[in-house]
Design a protein that fits this description.
- This protein has helices at residues 2-14, 20-39, 50-62, 68-88, 114-121, 129-144, 148-152, 181-200, 219-232, 241-254, 259-266, 271-274, 276-292, and strands at 159-160, 165-169, 175-179.
- It has a 3-stranded antiparallel beta sheet with strand order 1-2-3.
- The protein folds into 2 domains: 2-88, Orthogonal Bundle (DNA polymerase, domain 1); 114-291, Intergrase catalytic core (hpI Integrase, Chain A), CATH 1.10.443.
- By secondary structure, it is mainly α.
Length: 296
């Protein structure tokens, strides 16, 4: 089974353009499933039946005590794997086809208020090269709704600041154009002209955002920076870069943007993924009504 898992992961990487994060998640989930099957004496893909998959789901929930969301993710990996095996002719029937479980309710994403965003943007020390860089990164993230991986991988060739657009290569290598607005374009230009040369100190890089060592910014480093800046801005809850992406989408909708446009800017393949933000708006409106209406 391990050989077929390796082939599946190679297929996802080469043919489907899956990210390293996605590949690691699939690899982890399938390794757990393979270990479970091995304990039941099933070591080949031909031996996997619906019983193994159902047993695995029950085992994960009852014995491993994992959440419904984690189990659903495990099952998604197994479904994708079995479909790949069927397409490759390794199996003749798909044992995962009829296995289903109720999808867990999607929690509403964490958000910042517009006031909190302003406070966060004002925290970096603009007198320091890395402070100006961080301000440019935060402004760009909030103005565009990029995924953090898209932000840190942004190459110089993706920028067209004259017309305020970013050319983004997102999931599955899909390309999209994202507007960023005058404010973010201003901070990007200022960073590129003043701070980036100082950080590079004569070194060369194709990455827009670089560190003190001249290398590209990493997701982990930027995640840490956002959390630190949030604390300094007086935001008590834990904040990640993804929260700015959620805030971008929600604030756009609150100010009248249509859902299709927001979907395109976020790079969502399916509109249902974007619709979570309409639920956020409804929940917030309910809270405002309950708080301020005399008969709320």
């Amino acid at each position: 089974m391990d050989v077929w898992i390796d082939r599946f992961l190679a297929f996802k990487k080469i043919e489907m353009g899956a990210s390293l994060h996605t590949l690691e998640a699939y690899g982890h989930d399938l390794a757990i499933f393979a270990a479970f099957c091995a304990k039941r004496g099933v070591t080949t893909v031909e031996g996997v039946t619906q019983a193994e998959i159902l047993g695995f789901v029950v085992h994960r929930r009852q014995r491993d005590k994992v959440s419904a969301r984690t189990t659903a993710r495990n099952l998604t990996a197994i479904r994708n794997f079995c479909k790949f095996l069927l397409d490759e002719g390794a199996i003749h029937d798909n044992p995962a086809e009829l296995v289903d479980m109720q999808k867990p309710a999607r929690p509403l994403p964490k958000l910042l208020t517009e006031n909190e965003v302003e406070r966060l943007l004002d925290v970096p020390d603009l007198a320091k090269p890395n402070g100006l860089r961080d301000r440019a990164m935060l402004e760009t993230l909030y103005a565009s709704g990029l995924r953090v991986s898209e932000l840190v991988r942004l190459p110089l060739g993706a920028l067209n600041l004259d017309i305020g657009l970013l050319r983004i290569i997102g999931k599955r290598r899909k390309e999209r154009l994202v507007p960023i607005g005058d404010e973010a374009a201003h901070w990007l230009e200022k960073y590129l002209g003043e701070s980036r040369p100082a950080l590079l100190d004569g070194r060369r890089s194709e990455a827009v955002f670089v560190t003190n060592r001249g290398g590209p910014m990493t997701r982990q480093h930027f995640h840490l920076l956002v959390d630190q800046y949030a604390k300094r801005a007086g935001i008590a809850r834990k904040i990640s870069p993804h929260v700015l992406r959620h805030s971008f989408a929600t604030h756009l909708l609150e100010h009248g943007a249509d859902l299709r446009s927001v979907q395109e800017m976020l790079g969502h393949a399916n509109l249902t993924t974007t619709e979570i933000y309409t639920h956020i708006n409804r929940e917030r409106l309910k809270k405002v009504h309950q708080k301020h209406h005399p008969r709320g």
